[in-house]
Amino acid sequence: METIPYDKRSGKIWFNGELVDWTNAKVHVLSHGLHYASCVFEGVRVYDGEIFKLEEHTSRLFYSAKRMGIKMPFNEKKINDVCKEVVKIQKVQNGYVRPIVWRGSEMMAISAQKNKVHVAIASWEWGSYFDPNLKLKGIKLNISSWRRPHPNSVPWDTKAAGLYMICTLSKHEAETKGYTDSLMLDHEGNIAESTGANIFFKDKSGSLHTPIPDSFLDGITRRCVIDIAKSKGIKIIERKIKTEEMKDFVGCFLTGTAAEVTPVSQIGKFEFKVCNTIKDLSDSYQNLVRKKVAA
Questions:
Q1: Residue 295: its pLDDT value, please?
Q2: Same domain, 248 and 103
Q3: Is residue 187 domain-shared with residue 255, that is, in the same domain?
Q4: What is the pLDDT of residues 231-266, one digit of tens each?
Q5: Do 104 and 196 fall within a single domain?
Q6: CA nearest to 143, candidates 198, 192, 188, 203
Q7: Which of 1, 67, 142, 186 has the maximal Cβ count within 10 Å?
Q8: Residues 47 and 80 both lie in one domain
Q9: How far apart, in Å, are the Cα atoms of 160 and each of 95, 165, 167?
Q10: CA dihedral of residues 30, 119, 73, 36 (deg, nearest 10)
Q11: Cβ pair 161, 40 in contact under 8 A
């Protein structure tokens, strides 16, 4: 099915305090956010017309902006209210919300002290991030040649646009080789995450191992799935994980707002089973995010 380009869609986008026609939500080519990546954003899922974990995502947006030295022109309540409003206007039932914040075009140099801060919020219907058929049998990951940077070199705990440059490079590298996505290592060569999701491994005893998020996002979905797993009596071990340890794991999956809970069947030469534990966690996550229908 052909996808409509995102700049050709219909409806409304909230742009600097006003609802504008989708095709009129334009940014000048000399915006600082485009040239120097002074831009932060969020991605939030909508399930059955309700936004999941909206307040947590908005709080992270404001944290990201603060870390980037960007002063938000609106408060968190306003952003939350607008997100809900835009979802209703767009009549999104199962989709996505994208709040984005960037510096404008008043100054075109490294310094951007006088640049206006712009805020926009869009929402659209959006299904599974990965092909549902691939998810059933587990996606395959390449091991990226690009690594997450050292934590003292970037604001690693934010959703800043510049941090995703190497994610795009890694994703393209993987797709060129016939994989669905890439596993990224940290600056020390430990397992970090995929290009847009956190990663978990299941050992033979049933425990789940996941990297310590000290150079990449401690995802909202990651924390949610950890809580689900603990409620089921599953042991969670957060630690540094070397690539060679993957030969000892029997299962693997990704977690993320877009990815939800996605089984992984292969990473490079290492293979995993889509076991019942992962299926159960995925089902439990779906039960959590969707409205409970009264009997």
A1: 34
A2: no
A3: yes
A4: 999 999 999 999 999 999 999 999 999 999 999 999
A5: no
A6: 192
A7: 142
A8: yes
A9: 22, 10, 12
A10: -40
A11: yes
Helix or strand or coil: residue 201?
strand
Residue 154 dihedral angles phi and psi, to the nearest 5°: -150, 160
Residue 257, domain extent: 132-289
**Out of 159, 230, 242, 247, which one is annotated catalytic?**
159
Residue range 134-146: mean pLDDT, rounded: 93
Pairing of strands 12-15, 95-103: unpaired
Q: Which residues of 262-279 are buried (b: 16+ CB within 10 A; e: fewer)?
A: bbbbbbeebbbebbebbe
In three-state secondary structure terms, 51 is strand
Residue 168 sits at the vertex; the CA angle it makes with 163 and 170, to the nearest 5 degrees, is 100
Query: Which region among 114-123, 124-133, 233-242, 268-277 has the lowest average model confidence (pLDDT)?
Result: 124-133
Q: Are 265 and 137 in contact (CB under 8 A)?
A: yes
Which of 125, 142, 175 is a domain's end point? 125
pLDDT of amino acid 294: 39
Say yes or no: 89 and 21 in one domain: yes
Residue 64 is assigned to a structural domain of this protein: yes
Q: Are residues 97 and 143 in the same domain?
A: no
Among residues 83, 107, 125, the one where a domain terminates is: 125
Domains in the chain, number: 2
Give SS3 for 14. Answer: strand
- What is the Cα Rg of the chain in Å? 20
Residue with tokens 């995703």: 164
Q: Which two tokens stand for residue 110?
A: 């490294």
**Can you spell out the DSSP letters for 166-218?**
HHHHHHHHHHHTT-SEEEEE-TTSBEEEESSSEEEEE-TTS-EEEE--SSS--
**177 annotated active-site:** no
* 240 inside domain: yes
- The proportion of the chain whose per-residue pLDDT surpasses 70, expressed as a percent, equals 98
Question: Are 150 and 119 contained in the same domain?
Answer: no
Q: Give CA–CA dist 66/60, Å, rounded.
A: 10
Query: Which one-letter DSSP state was computed for residue 98?
Result: E
